[in-house]
Amino acid sequence: xxxxxxxxxxxxxxxxxxxxxxxxxxxxxxxxxxxxxxxxxxxxxxxxxxxxxxxxxxxxxxxxxxxxxxxxxxxxxxxxxxxxxxxxxxxxxxxxxxxxxxxxxxxxxxxxxxxxxxxxxxxxxxxxxxxxxxxxxxxxxxxxxxxxxxxxxxxxxxxxxxxxxxxxxxxxxxxxxxxxxxxxxxx
Length: 187
Hints:
Blueprint: H1 2-10, H2 17-24, E1 28-32, E2 37-39, E3 47-53, E4 56-61, E5 67-73, E6 78-79, H3 82-87, E7 94-97, E8 101-107, H4 108-117, H5 125-133, H6 144-154, H7 157-161, H8 164-171, H9 175-186
Antiparallel strand pairs: 1-8, 2-7, 3-6, 3-8, 4-5, 4-7
Helix pairs in contact: 6-9
């Protein structure tokens, strides 16, 4: 089960066998049902998690009926609320499992412990950096077509797993705009 985690980590740094064991020994497995939260609004994000199986969404509510998707994660992605995790303040967002999911998570305390063992583990911070910069809805400079093309290029798997309404919210556009863009691109 740790094979995928170690493959993901090999993309951000080089870890020898001892260091790999130090990381995997600190991973906690959690099986989470569809509709259950990994993080609720008002909680502090104390872990970052590797999504081994399932689908997870990260969002905030603008009203009782409307949500804005910040991130959509599929297996192989790292899941966290960057702002809450780094500031250790309560989140204004929610992280919910869209379907039954399995995550392997590591706590911020374990991360600090690893960094205390070896400076090599500072490279784990790249997971945090990626979480902070991978947000389409904050991209106000790109056109809807540019956002959709970038999604097709970088994360095409999301289109296979999430409803178009969630994809539209993730891209910062209405479902109608997404429909027009998809139609235009497919011509």
